[in-house]
Amino acid sequence: MQIEIKFDPAFAMAFAHLEPGEAIRAEAGAMVSHTPGLTMETSTQGGLMKGLKRAVGGESFFMNTFTATQPGDHIGLAAPLPGDIAHWPLSGQTVYLQSGAYLASAMGIEVDSSWGGSKTFFSGEGLIVLKVWGTGDLLVSAYGAIHAIDLAPGQAYVVDTGHMVGWSEGVTYQVSKAGGGLKQTFLGGEGLVCTLTGPGRIYLQSRSTSDFLNWLTPRLPKGSS
């Protein structure tokens, strides 16, 4: 599989070029276009319980598997929100993604939203974290541009939880109030932040969906009584 990303960082679209017999698994609704030779199969990818776990984790209940049947087959994929896509090749390691960041992956990649850390990591943001592991190509989407930071052992970095996209296994974290106090949290316009410590890679997004919704909601027309 060869991955090509175009139109980034504002309106990124990923093209996966497949060999005959090769397949890619994608979120429902992620497909933009594909060559006629590609076949599509829709399923829960592991049964009812796995589908429910993904739905709880903010992903789609059903997933689509696209399989190439001819040389030159490819598929174009995009996320629902405007933003970037990162290609994150895995070789047996585990990474963690913010709910909604998973876009597509090779068949050797597994996704789970039931691990214990999902209940606590972003609890203040009401988000669930996905555990992703295996070998193959992983496509991760973001709201806004993606920024990758490679942390050295012991190196720390502070990120607003709404701007987190994902991080690799080995990165430790501690969630706290921005500035360390209630005054900074409520009057400074910031909520919870996460201090991440290496070694490992972290991905950030330049925009926050929760901040956008907080800006948009008061501006929506109010229904008449």
Quick take:
The protein is mainly β and 225 residues long.
Explain the overall architecture.
With 225 residues, the chain is mainly beta. The protein is 10% helix and 46% strand. Strands 3, 5, 6, 8, 9, 10, 11, 12, 14 and 17 form a ten-stranded antiparallel β-sheet that branches. It has a four-stranded antiparallel β-sheet with strand order 1-2-7-4, with no helix packed on it. Strands 13-16-15 form a three-stranded antiparallel β-sheet. The protein starts with a strand and ends in a 9-residue tail after the last helix.
Instruction: Quote the distance from N terminus to C terminus.
Output: 55 Å
Q: What is the tally of helical segments?
A: 3
* Helical fraction: 10-25%
| SS content category | mainly beta
The topology string of helices and strands comes to: EEEEEHEEEEEEEEEEHEEH
Q: Give the uncertain stretches in residue-range form.
A: 54-58, 122-126
Mean pLDDT: 84
Shape: globular
